[in-house]
Structures are given as structure tokens and as C-alpha cells.
Amino acid sequence: MFTGIIEEIGTIASLKKIGDGIRIEVAAPKSLKELKINDSVAINGVCQTVVLKTKDSFVVEAVEETLKKTTLGSLNQKTKVNIELPTRLNARLGGHLVLGHVDTVGEIVKVNKKKNSWLCQIRFPKEFRKYTVPIGSIAIDGVSLTIVELIDNNIIVSIIPHTMANTIFPSYKVGTKVNLEFDIIGKYIERFVSEPTSNYYQKPPLSEKDLRDGGF
């Protein structure tokens, strides 16, 4: 479990093909001090497992399914990446609940520099629009952000100077592909209202009429 608060900008030290997957070595000295083999770590918002540690880096293995749904397959040596370690249960939740399970890849279509911030517009597949709401949360390359505006299957997010200085966002330009993870709460609500929640408690799916009758 993560919160979308980036702790370090790492650098891809090496990439090695393993079957249809990739072994990714990341230089991230700050995170390396806390990581152990078998620990989880988020790389550009993708939850991966540490399989090896060296003096200066850690190694993960991205398999076929991960490469299909994320941007990890487009990484190059010396590419900068967002790094986040798993959250501690006794710590404050600074962003929002992030699983590191990327839903889809979006594309930067516009970046506007304002006086004290940047507005970034991102296009994503239309089928995921139902998981987006204005002023709702979204993780972009692992960074917890707030949706400022929703236009069809485009979201606009506002990036403050601190976030810009401590993530890979300065590298973004029109055409950049990014990992998107939508708010997990919305996905669970969709499942609950569309299917019975238990084999022992069978009820018809919740309808719009049911919600209206209940005062919603």
C-alpha cells in the first residue's frame, strides 16, 4: 500500500531482457537503505518486488502483464523514475490510498505553465471515465494528485512547485505516456452495486430507483 507521496527520484542503472519480461536495476541510494529483498516498492506508480540488492541499487523484475499495462517497458538506461516505499500503518496518510496496481496508460496532451503552478491535461481510454470525478484523487506515475477538471476522457491536474521539484514531472511534454491508477474506492463501489456481495445474501443489483427511494 502506498500514498502517492514520492520519496526519491531514482535512475535506471540497467535493463536486461528475461524471457518476455525485463529485469530493472534502479539506483536510488535513499530508498536502498530501507529496502530488503522481497519488499515492495513503487516505480513510477507500479508496485514491484525487490529481488536483488547491490551496494548502489536494487533490482525488480517486470513480467509480461506489467509491461502490457504500464510504461515500464519503455524505460531506458539513465531514465529518471519516481520512487515510493510502502506506507507504514503508524504514519499519516499524506496523499490517498494507492495500491501500485496501474489501470491504464494515459498520454499528456497539454502542459500550461501558470504563475505558481502547472496545469497538465491527460487523455486516457474512455472506459475508465467512470472512475474519475472533479476534485477526486488519481495517481499519475505514482504521484497523488487532485483532478481539477474532467473533459470527456481527459483530466486536468494542477502541479505545485514542490511536486514539480521532487518528481519526474519536469520531463513531461506533449506525447509523454504516464501510468494511471484510479481511486480504488470508486472501483469497489462499482463492484458492490453491480453484483451481490455474498453467496449467502443474494439480492438484485442496486438500481437508480433504489437510490432515489433511499433518499440519495
Labels describing this entry:
mainly beta, single chain, 6-stranded antiparallel beta barrel
Structure description:
The chain has 216 residues and is mainly beta. It is 15% helix and 38% strand. The chain has five helices and twelve strands. It has helices spanning 29-32, 64-69, 161-165, 184-194, 208-213, and strands spanning 8-18, 21-27, 40-43, 46-53, 58-62, 80-84, 104-113, 118-123, 137-140, 143-151, 154-159, 177-182. The strands form two sheets. It has a six-stranded antiparallel beta barrel. Strands 7-8-11-10-9-12 form a six-stranded antiparallel β-barrel. β10 (143-151) and β11 form a beta hairpin. The model has no long low-confidence stretch (mean pLDDT 92).
